[in-house]
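Chapter review: from sequence to fold.
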Amino acid sequence: MSSCLKLIVILGVHFRIVFCSSAKRQFEIPKCCPIGEQFNDSMACVTSNSIPENWEWVINNSIPLNQEVTFSPSSPTILGNAHLSCPSPSRAILLHGIDEFRLLIAESGRLHLNVLVYSTQERDQMVTYTESFCFDARTKTAIFCPCSKLPCVRKCCYDGFVYNGSVGRCVDTGHDDVGFWRPTFQAGVAEEGYYVIGNRRPSCESGSATVITSSNSTKFAVGEDGSVKVSGYPQAVPWHEYCGDTGMLLVCPGRLRTEVRKFLIYGVLLLIAGALLIGVVITGFLLPSKVAKKLHNLVFAAHNSMLATAYVATGVAQIIPNKRNAACFSLAFTIQFTFLAAFLWLNVMCIDIAWAFSGLHSPQGSAVERDHKKFILYSVYAWGTASILSVITATVEFVPGLAVGSPLKPNFGRRACWFEKPAATLAYFYGPMAFLLLANLMLFLYTATRIILVRRDTAILNSAGNTSGSAIRKNRQRLVLYVKLFCLMGLTWITEIISWAVGGADYYWYITDIVNMLRAVFIFVIFCCKRSVLNLLRARLASFLPCAKRLTHGKSGMSLSGPTSSLQLTTSIKKSTRRPSQDT
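The token string follows.
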């Protein structure tokens, strides 16, 4: 306890004596390393029991926010191994005596970090951080997370140094006014300040960073999230994948991968692919109702409708500018949901054909009722599973404080209208997709094994004219149809996953990208350009299209199915009183 004596004189006549007291409180110093450790010259924590810790530089630079509360400077409380909420690449280092910052002591005894930041306005300003910072006694440094409050940009070198691309390192300019790089921001951005993290190279996942030189045709502008937009390129580069210096940017390979026309071409091709798949869906519903309402045709239509929507959304995402807004978020979730739903419906086809040969009981009721019940179950599975994955993704993306700084954070809109990090892409997209491809392969192998086991009985049933044997034959033909679709979807997507995992220059994968976009053309040709399907469509449209009536005139006796026709594969499965497994 300390006391003070105040003598108050009023108009030279009256006076009074007031005794006051205040407690000297201890304040807390968050330490970067655990107790008993300090930073070495490489800023790594090492055991330092033999080296005393001198915190005078912190104590002498600490100012109480409330001047009426005093603190004991001799024995501060040291909190070892302080937690920082940002990953290492996002942390900034402040050097005592060089960088401008102050320490403020709150009434609770906790320190606040008051840091000078730059602004696009005329005057720079101080910003206070109340958490996510720590100190080291030996190196007299403070480490904090500046990007939690402000946009961050990286300078490749410290002030007074510039990056030399020919030697690949920072060189001393010898002049204080040279190498003092500050970026150009987009209009209205960083008016409340921004922070420059010095001497920090981009954290590239593979390869060496590329130097982009500023010129009359190449301009750089930083956005509100710290990403940089380079003129002539459609996608902004995330702030942690570039650094800037005088007249140049150092950018990770692949970030500025191509010019706008490539994305425009890809977008147009994807939109055409989506239109073709929509044509496939419409063709299926224009077939006679008894054909269109078959379970496998409904499943096929659901698969193609999801794939068509995915292509259209991806095409739009390729064409529109990259912005972190509601439209970009909507496109990202649509692409994820529809592609996963398309693969789940492909998985439904595999489950359905395996069910036909498994011996498991079908739902009760007539053939139409059984198909209806199955389709409801399949819909709940396919669309429900895709919805669950999308909800998980949205939760991680939008819930405050969840997965902050984690590679599993989707961060839609930072890299493009898609996942920012490979780990997130794997967890929420390619991982489930690869699992479904493997599951489909296992189901096909199981079904093929069942067919081999019942082949002898099937031959006997067919020779006797048994309708169940005929049903098995039709199911085998349906299996061939599904195998074609699986190969078309599976093989092309395997190359897509490989190209994503391996990486490299974009032109390595131009051929596989084009083949993937042409899969819709293959599906359209296989399932719509068959003579049998065209004849059915002409017959269907003959009642209200005179030209179609003339085309079908005199051909009513034409056979609409053959040994290898698509119509036979998709519509000739007859109702059977016995399930295929009962003939085994």
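Two observations follow directly from the output. The first helix runs from residue 56 to 60. Residues 1-22, 547-584 have pLDDT under 50 and may be disordered.
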